[in-house]
UniProtKB/TrEMBL annotation:
This is Aldose 1-epimerase. It comes from Lignipirellula cremea. Transmembrane segments: none annotated. One of its GO terms (molecular function) is aldose 1-epimerase activity. Its EC number is 5.1.3.3. It comes from the Bacteria. Gene3D superfamilies: 2.70.98.10. Keywords: Isomerase. One of its GO terms (biological process) is carbohydrate metabolic process.
Length: 314
């Protein structure tokens, strides 16, 4: 197996996780036991680790230092202009790390960590963002869960503006049946949705009339979304989305208050659903510069902060 593919294995249960370092440190396969048999939780394009499909369209892409799309390929931060991409025909999306090779730091049978430094590993170095950064992703596998901890370090002498998102593609059912996928119930802990102007959030939120239905669970056949939510339900400082299929399998993704937003996306192929914890709105620097609260975070030089997401199956 290629050195760029890292396989974690929990020997007793047979649980496995496979991470493609060369494709953005993307965990594109997660198999956890259900009814004594490991089942795949994640959707990915066939041949993904060999380069098939878009880097943001499979597994668990890591989105940093901004999730979502920017309105321009140039940003202005504190009076200084930065060229985020050199392609004038393509608006930047999902940051700089999801489609670049990462470097392995360490691994055991059930854990691995890898790093990305913008000035060293970014396609355009550190000139595309107001400050350089180091990102470390730590993966820990158990018989019933995968925990991902993302550590953000400001390695520059200037404050680092940042936003983080995870973009997991979940399979809908333990079987490959379209009927079983359609019958899967999706529980979303949300009370508000983002107000949008075209593809961009305004910074305003609207109360949902069907929040209770989303809390209790809606059939996947009733859901067709590419939308951001907030007003999350918290229990012990944890928000949780759940997928419940017809076999009794329950898949959960849980996170803490560092992620106050949730993006839900149903890909056109209808074989998966994306349940995406985000720390901020899309295009957060533009909103921040306009005096609109966006969830943009600032990290002082030398400081480090971490965010955690856990995926379980029961």
């Amino acid at each position: 197996m290629s050195d760029s593919l890292i396989t974690l294995t929990e020997a007793v249960s047979g649980a496995t996780a496979v991470i493609a370092l060369d494709r953005g440190c993307n965990c594109f396969s997660l198999r956890l036991p259900h009814q004594e048999q490991p089942t795949e939780l994640l959707w990915s394009e066939p041949g993904f680790p060999q380069g098939a499909g878009g880097a943001a369209h499979s597994g668990i892409p890591l989105l940093f230092p901004f999730p979502g799309r920017l309105a321009s390929n140039r940003i202005v931060w504190q009076g200084e202009e930065f060229s985020v991409t050199t392609d004038p025909g393509e608006l930047p999306i999902h940051g700089f790390v999801y489609d670049r090779p990462w470097r392995l730091l360490d691994r055991t049978d059930t854990t691995a960590s890898a790093e990305f430094v913008l000035s060293r590993d970014g396609a355009d170095g550190a000139a595309c963002w107001p400050a350089d950064f180091r990102l470390v992703a730590r993966f820990a596998l158990t018989a019933a869960s995968l925990t991902i901890v993302v550590e953000i370090e400001n390695v520059d002498c200037r404050p680092l503006p940042w936003g983080l998102g995870l973009h997991p593609y979940f399979r809908l059912a333990a079987t490959a049946s379209p009927e079983d996928a359609a019958a899967c119930r999706v529980q979303l802990p949300v009370a508000q949705t983002w107000e949008m102007e075209g593809p961009f959030a305004t910074g305003e939120f609207r109360e949902l009339g069907n929040a209770l239905s989303l809390h209790l669970g809606m059939r996947f056949s009733q859901i067709d979304l590419d939308l951001g939510f907030t007003g999350l339900q918290w229990f012990d400082e944890t928000a949780t989305c759940r997928l419940l299929d017809t076999t009794g399998r329950q898949v959960s993704i849980a996170w803490g208050p560092e992620f106050p937003h949730l993006v839900v996306y149903t890909p056109p192929h209808r074989e998966a659903i994306c349940l995406e914890p985000w720390t901020c709105l899309p295009d957060p620097l533009r909103l921040h510069e306009a005096g609109i609260a966006s969830g943009l975070r600032l990290l002082a030089p030398g400081e480090t902060i971490a965010a955690t997401v856990t995926i379980t199956q029961g």
